[in-house]
């Protein structure tokens, strides 16, 4: 990343040369979590020493993994507006709020679900290899093959067998071994890892919900429309496991609304996530 000076104090241009992370399902398109992380890091540079409170990203069009991305960031007091372009075309917009550390919403009412330690559960790769009929659960197949994160579901059999709208899905996740030493992630800290993770697993609840009611044959995969991350702390260790708890409460036609909470291994609630997503019609 590099930034270009501007004569306006409240305006900066940030450039990420790429290549960018491709999505697990469509590798030629930029992964939404990667774009959201770039937006967050541009905001962090411009607003330092303040910390990021909330980041909202609106995805307008697919981005290319090989095309440099320029972000125009305008700051008005504690609010920043972001516009992302590739080859001059806008493909993402966003808004962020920043503040001092005590301004973070850190008195959460949500406690980490009661689960065992991460290594007590089999990996998602193992779960898929031992599933009699993996076809409806293509979202898990895609994520296990991508390998960005080592994922360990806390109740895989229950997740794919019972539809209970009020029931959340929980996954332990940590950066995959092949990506921990990646040049693209060599300077990634805890905030960056949480931003990447926030878009990696959140869609599972919506797509599993869809599979359990049989509509997975009508729609194919999923993609983010808007993505909001609220941080409850900025002191995050990116090297350990995170517990990712997600739920899909509302669905209509090909769109669904998703919520997630991310906890550190010690039980601290580090971030909350809300996403609106959609699934394109399946090719018949």
Top keywords for this entry?
single chain; 284 residues; alpha+beta; Thiol Ester Dehydrase, Chain A; twelve-stranded antiparallel sheet; 12 strands; Acyl-CoA_hotdog
Question: Can you put this structure into words, describing what you see?
Answer:
With 284 residues, the chain is an alpha+beta fold. It is built from 7 helices and 12 strands. The protein has helices at 32-47, 124-129, 138-146, 156-159, 177-180, 190-198, 203-212, and strands spanning 2-4, 11-16, 51-59, 69-76, 79-86, 89-99, 149-153, 169-175, 223-231, 242-252, 255-264, 269-278. A 12-stranded antiparallel β-sheet has the order 1-2-4-5-6-3-9-12-11-10-8-7.
How far do the termini sit from each other? 42 Å
Structural class designation: alpha+beta
Largest sheet, in brief, is: 12 strands, antiparallel
Number of discrete domains: 2
Q: What percent strand?
A: 25-35%
Low-confidence stretches: 3-9
CATH architecture designation of the largest domain: Roll
Relevant CATH superfamily of the largest domain: Hotdog Thioesterase
Order of helices and strands: EEHEEEEHHEHEHHHEEEE
CATH class of the largest domain equals: Alpha Beta
Give the number of DSSP strands.
Answer: 12
Adjacency order of strands in the biggest sheet: 1-2-4-5-6-3-9-12-11-10-8-7
Helix content: 10-25%
**Tally of contiguous helical segments:** 7
CATH topology of the largest domain: Thiol Ester Dehydrase, Chain A
The Cα radius of gyration reads: 18 Å
Average per-residue pLDDT, rounded, comes to 84
Shape: globular
Family: Belongs to the C/M/P thioester hydrolase family.
Pfam families: 4HBT_3C
Protein name: Thioesterase superfamily protein
Organism: Steinernema glaseri
């Amino acid at each position: 990343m590099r930034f270009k000076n501007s004569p306006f104090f409240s305006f900066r241009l940030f450039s990420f040369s790429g290549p960018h992370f491709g999505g697990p399902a469509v590798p030629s398109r930029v992964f939404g979590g990667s774009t959201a992380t770039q937006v967050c890091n541009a905001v962090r540079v411009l607003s330092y020493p303040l910390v990021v409170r909330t980041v909202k990203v609106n995805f307008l069009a697919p981005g290319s993994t090989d095309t440099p991305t320029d972000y125009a960031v305008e700051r008005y007091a504690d609010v920043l507006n972001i516009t992302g372009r590739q080859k001059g075309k806008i493909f993402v917009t966003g808004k962020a709020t920043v503040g001092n550390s005590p301004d973070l919403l850190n008195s959460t009412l949500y406690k980490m679900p009661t689960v065992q330690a991460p290594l007590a559960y089999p990996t998602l790769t193992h779960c898929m290899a031992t599933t009699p009929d993996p076809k409806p659960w293509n979202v898990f197949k895609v994520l296990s093959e991508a390998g960005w994160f080592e994922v360990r579901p806390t109740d895989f059999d229950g997740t794919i067998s019972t539809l209970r709208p009020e029931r959340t899905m929980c996954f332990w996740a940590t950066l995959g071994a092949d990506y921990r030493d990646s040049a693209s992630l060599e300077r990634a800290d805890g905030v960056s890892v949480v931003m990447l993770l926030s878009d990696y697993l959140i869609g599972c609840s919506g797509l599993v919900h869809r599979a359990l009611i049989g509509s997975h044959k009508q729609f194919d995969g999923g993609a983010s429309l808007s993505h909001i991350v609220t941080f409850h702390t900025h002191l995050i260790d990116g090297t350990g496991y995170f517990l990712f708890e997600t739920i899909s409460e509302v669905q209509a036609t090909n769109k669904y609304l998703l919520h997630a909470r991310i906890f550190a291994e010690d039980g601290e609630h580090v971030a909350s996530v809300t996403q609106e997503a959609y699934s394109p019609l399946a090719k018949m």
